[in-house]
Specification:
heterodimer; A: mainly beta; seven-stranded mixed β-sheet; four-stranded antiparallel β-sheet; globular; B: mainly beta
Amino acid sequence: DAGVTQSPTHLIKTRGQQVTLRCSPKSGHDTVSWYQQALGQGPQFIFQYYEEEERQRGNFPDRFSGHQFPNYSSELNVNALLLGDSALYLCASRPDGAVISTDTQYFGPGTRLTVL
Amino acid sequence: AQKVTQAQTEISVVEKEDVTLDCVYETRDTTYYLFWYKQPPSGELVFLIRRNSFDEQNEISGRYSWNFQKSTSSFNFTITASQVVDSAVYFCALSGPINAGNNRKLIWGLGTSLGVNP
């Protein structure tokens, strides 16, 4: 059973460019969340997708957008990249349902984005 | 407001030593969940444990043990007989309040970097 997978592993972009990161959730999971983790910091919640809609959003600008596909995979798009967007971007998945049973999220290995 | 504090930024121990990672949290919720995640150098966050706020029983899993004390709002993590492979950043997290969509998001501590030297 494959866990959460993310691509690419590493990415280097320049300021002003746009980037798309991809995530495939763990089998049986239909809820996907994205996190940004700057060096030496804890993960910061970006947003969560369920049933192809953004269900919850953290404190991130509109430059950060996402999408979820019918197969539950997800994309994170960042436009007009800034130097400060350099970070590890983590995708996490869990099955939907009652909050009590599904607070546990499983994380992918992350995509390391460097903005020059 | 919800908050998680991991006061220890870095800990360095020698193999086979026991080590305790501290976690103190703040919340006004009566029902909440606490988590510990391990992040090895590869970057992937590995789930270790989830604890329900109503269950204060300590838990042991192999060399890992967790001490949840509601009276002091702490959820400490102890590794017994540490090994080099335990070297990682460890995060404590708290499930935030339920929003209108009946979902919670995790509130994370800043992590404790544990180095276990041979």
